[in-house]
Amino acid sequence: MPDHDRIEGAAKNIGGQIKEGVGKLTGDEKLKAEGRMDQVEGKTQNAVGGVKDTLRDADKRN
Fold it and tell me: What CA–CA distance (Å, rounded) separates 55 from 33?
């Protein structure tokens, strides 16, 4: 099962994409920027979860 951080990170990334899209449609620069930041945070959190998954899987093999 994937690490909880991977799931939350993916959700935050998708939410950020939606937020950025709404910002583009409405011309709201602040909303677009928030969406981009959410995407960065989500990708980072997803990457952390991936590292945790790798470490956990490596520990199980040993």
Answer: 33
- Contacts of 13-16 with CB under 8 Å at 24 or more apart are 13/38, 13/39, 13/42, 13/43, 13/46, 14/42, 15/42, 16/40, 16/41, 16/42
Cα-to-chain-centroid distance, residue 32 = 16
Angle at 10 between CA 62 and CA 5, to 5 degrees: 40
Of 57 and 11, the structure prediction assigns the larger pLDDT to: 11
Please name which of 20, 22, 14 lies closest in space to residue 34, comparing C-alpha atoms. Answer: 20
CA distances from 49 to 20, 27, 32, 37 (A): 24, 34, 26, 18
pTM: 0.84
